[in-house]
Specification:
Number of domains: 1
Strand content: over 45%
CATH superfamily: START domain
Helix content: 25-40%
CATH architecture: 2-Layer Sandwich
Shape: globular
CATH topology: Alpha-D-Glucose-1,6-Bisphosphate, Chain A, domain 4
Number of helices: 3
Structural class: alpha+beta
Oligomer: single chain
Radius of gyration: 15 Å
Order of helices and strands: EHHEEEEEEH
Number of strands: 7
Length: about 150
């Protein structure tokens, strides 16, 4: 499964970057996230930052361990998680436009086990729709945080 969702934000790349890289505070910014617990913090930069994220998904509480694998400051960062027989890779990227920026989230789930491949084939459309909805809500919350701080 692969998805891409965008939102336009009236703010600078720096403003958006500050909000999306505040992993410690994202439970206060993004309504879908209930709790964040930092597990590993690199000496410098973001690559290697690892956290446990608890959120409500599909009506249930779900906890995943995620970490940042790649960064280009003020442009994008990429995260990875491995759970339920799949690898999940997300990228949040920022592109300037005339009156602000466009924030894009790309999300991909790659099943690794037979069971996860069967689940993906049978329930993939349902999960994709719910995932798109959750990502839209997350991006909207970032937009509100950035635009409200101006």
């Amino acid at each position: 499964m692969k998805i891409e969702v965008q939102t336009d934000i009236a703010g600078s790349k720096e403003d958006v970057w500050r909000v999306i890289t505040d992993i410690d505070g994202c439970a206060d910014t993004i309504r879908g996230i209930e709790k964040i617990e930092i597990l590993e913090r690199p000496d410098s930069g973001l690559v290697g930052l690892k956290w446990r994220e608890t959120r409500k998904m599909f009506g249930k509480i779900a906890t995943e361990i995620m970490w940042i694998t790649d960064v280009k400051e003020h442009e994008y960062y990429q995260t990875r998680a491995e759970s339920h027989g799949s690898v999940y890779v997300s990228t949040l990227s920022i592109a300037e436009r005339d009156s602000g920026v466009t924030l894009t989230m790309r999300f991909g789930a790659t099943p690794q086990t037979l069971a996860s491949k069967i689940m993906s084939a049978t329930l993939g459309r349902m999960f994709k729709g719910a995932t798109v909805k959750a990502v839209r809500e997350d991006l909207h919350d970032v937009k509100v945080a950035v635009e409200g701080s101006r």
